[in-house]
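Worked problem 6 (solution included).
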Amino acid sequence: MKENVFKQKKMLKIWRLSLGVVTILLVSVLAYGWWDSSQWTGAVQDSRVKIDADMVIEGVDYTEVRKGKKFWTLHAREAKFYSKKGQTLLSDVNAVVYLQDGRKLYIKGDKATMHVSSKNIELFGKVILKTGPYTLVTDSLHYLNNKRIIMTRDRVIMTGNGMVLKGQGLTLDIDGKKLRIDSTVDCLLGGHILAELG
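Solution. The predicted structure is:
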């Protein structure tokens, strides 16, 4: 009888000890899980802050029309609209500017910013402009929508009809058909330097 009582007390102690260990483990797991989930919540919130655009659209096409006449069209792989800045950030941009005589200017850029109110566009990255046999390469171009002027302060290289022209800065009046290279022009024709203007 005494042995049974002794065994029962011993089993009770073991059971209480086991229950204590399980309780400690359970509390530890819950505390770790709470801490771990709070860390993940912080990380998710941080990633959401990085996506600060009001709207993101894949595959964008835009056409500027005045008095029923196309002035320019634009296609971008992606557009991010920022309402507070009044800007749209575009990726992989291809644009066509229509000239009065029916010819077209083709412009390609890695990135671009379009100002919503003015429709002015700044292209940057590798920017390529083509018309007829001529190709112009530079790091940035600014298109002033109302004035129909394209400009840059960066280095430009223009090729076409056996000519290579290098300079710094450019202004192109689309409707006035005037092109001006601002400074340091090297012009090569048929492999010979024809002019070096400072």
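Discussion: DSSP finds one helix and ten strands in the chain.
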